[in-house]
Amino acid sequence: MTIDQVIVFAVIAGLMVLFISEKIRYDLAALLGLLAAVGTGIVPVDKAFGGFGDQVVIIVASALIISAGVSKSGVIARLIRRGEPYMRTPGTQVFVLATSVALLSSFMKNIGALAIFLPVALQIARRSGTSASTLLMPMAFASLIGGVVTLVGTSPNILVSRIRQEVLGKPFEMFDFAPVGLGILVAGLGFLAFGWRLLPASRGAQASAQDAFQVDAYIIEASVPASSPFVDKTVESLEALGDGEVSVTAIIREGGRRYIPSGHWWIFADDVLVLQGDAHAVRELAQEARLDVVGTAKTPDETLAPAQISVVEAVVMADSQLVGRTPSDLRLRDRFGVNLLGISRPGQAGNARLGRTPFRVGDVVILQGSTVGTPDILRDLGCLPLTDRATGFGSSRRDYLPLVILAIAIVLIAAKFVPVTAAFFGAAVLIVLLHVLTLGEAYRALDPPILVLLACLIPISDAVSSTGAAGIAAGALSAVAGELSATGTVALVLVATMAMTPFLNNAATVLIMAPIAVGVARNLDLNPDPFLMAVAIGAACDFLTPIGHQCNTLVMGPGGYRFGDYWKLGLPLSVIVIVLAVPLITLVWPL
């Protein structure tokens, strides 16, 4: 190996360690990787920042804006609500919701498609008595398999198309992925319609007629004023008031000392009680016992009337600035104008102080704030509100605009009148120009971390090919596949990519694996297309963990899932994808 090849492998290994360890955020890791590549000379300075102007970055940025515009529309959610009376069984609910999410994910960012249907699914679960855990994971997985149908459905497809253009001089077109993707989609949806039975029963609080969402029990703090009728009463008597649905998991008194109480403990004035239970049950108990929920004693904005203040539940996303920090550190009321009323987390121990509990990805939080300003605050915090958008309020004509714009862009691309980059860029501009999104909302939709990741890894991926490092890795993989048939080698590339994706961002997986897959094809004197398709599908189909893809993370809190729940449904689905994708790939793209 040459010195440059050694350096390339060292940079990639360093990036993989940083991505897997999560010691620093993935976009900063990518910036460090690019800096190392430029500093060592494997990426020339004049090409180091070409990734920021690459067509892939433009397409992804435009798709994010279009997705935000479509997400703002309530049309699709209202259509699902109209069909709700016909979704009487969990199987039909899973099939309809999963199919809807998958179809929408084919033409917009899959996390955006899932975000549209998540509140609708939670409302359907509440009204029908179906466990939310039955619906949400199948929807998340459907959003991933829906993305493999078209070029713009997921970032891996766009990146693979770029690499094909470099190798063969022509990128994949908009619907080149469809013959394989549709087969996977149909089989995947068929499995999910029955496979939901593999999921565990709902944990934590059960949905009630009044409760909008089915999540694990919330942790909420409430102080005991002297006027409360439960001063000098026992913990047991207070819990009895809540019919056993609320537990007093801790008492804070004597200057902040925390005690784990038994049922016979007395409650004194000025105690702070740590309550755990269903959000609605805790709220009812606090009202009847005349307790003051911590955070509501002062309104977020003293100038607001009660009618201008609302309470919202939201999911903490992977890129949220809340992650790893406590409410005390963040000073949410002073800095953002919202009060934190509760946190829900699968498996959460209920005796911790609310202010000292670090936020985690997937937490569901209750926040109180201005009815008008809270949506923008949630976006700034990196939280997704669990609010049913299918209310019917607002301009119905404006609701249809983003769907019309997206449809026109797809038609122009399919008819080959306009390249994908120009069509999606134009659609994104129209979304803003026609006031579907404000300019501020469009900028917030851009997701800078993923754009920075792509822009930094593209030059490194080019260096993998230009230095010959891809050829060496391909040679090693070819040696492993020496006893396999050509079809078996495609399967090996697919499985290897799927194995990497849970630990790396799927875009990073593509940019590492695609040049190697091309090298394997050339070593065996085969067509690179089936190998690139295998990389695209393997990177998009990540069903085994909640951390490999944002869609999996998003449903973890609202669904009450634990880390080990994902493989129970995800492993058989992964096997189905492998078994079906390999023959489809080799049939559509001959070796």
Describe this structure in words.
The structure is a single chain. With 591 residues, the protein is an alpha+beta fold. Among the domains are: 218-293, Regulator of K+ conductance, C-terminal domain (Alpha-Beta Plaits, 2-Layer Sandwich); 306-385, Regulator of K+ conductance, C-terminal domain (Alpha-Beta Plaits, 2-Layer Sandwich). It is 55% helix and 8% strand. The chain is built from 24 helices and 9 strands. The chain has helices at residues 3-21, 26-40, 55-72, 75-82, 90-105, 110-128, 132-146, 155-168, 178-195, 235-241, 279-288, 327-330, 332-336, 374-381, 396-414, 420-433, 439-445, 448-466, 469-480, 486-500, 506-523, 528-540, 550-559, 566-588; strands spanning 218-223, 246-253, 257-259, 272-277, 292-293, 309-316, 339-344, 364-370, 383-385. Strands 1, 2, 3, 4, 5, 6, 7, 8 and 9 form a 9-stranded antiparallel beta sheet that branches. A hairpin with a 3-residue loop joins strand 2 and strand 3 (257-259). Helix 5 runs antiparallel to helix 6. The protein is globular and about 85 Å long.
Q: Tell how many strands the DSSP assignment holds.
A: 9
- Named CATH topology of the domain at 306-385: Alpha-Beta Plaits
Helix segment tally = 24
Helix content: 55-70%
Oligomerization category of the chains in this entry: single chain
Poorly predicted segments = 203-216, 388-396
Q: Could you say what the CATH architecture of the domain at 306-385 is?
A: 2-Layer Sandwich
CATH superfamily of the domain at 306-385: Regulator of K+ conductance, C-terminal domain
Radius of gyration: 26 Å
CATH class of the domain at 306-385: Alpha Beta
Q: Let me know the average pLDDT.
A: 79
Tell me the overall shape: globular
Alpha-carbon distance between the two ends: 30 Å
Binned strand content: 5-15%
Biggest β-sheet description = 9 strands, antiparallel
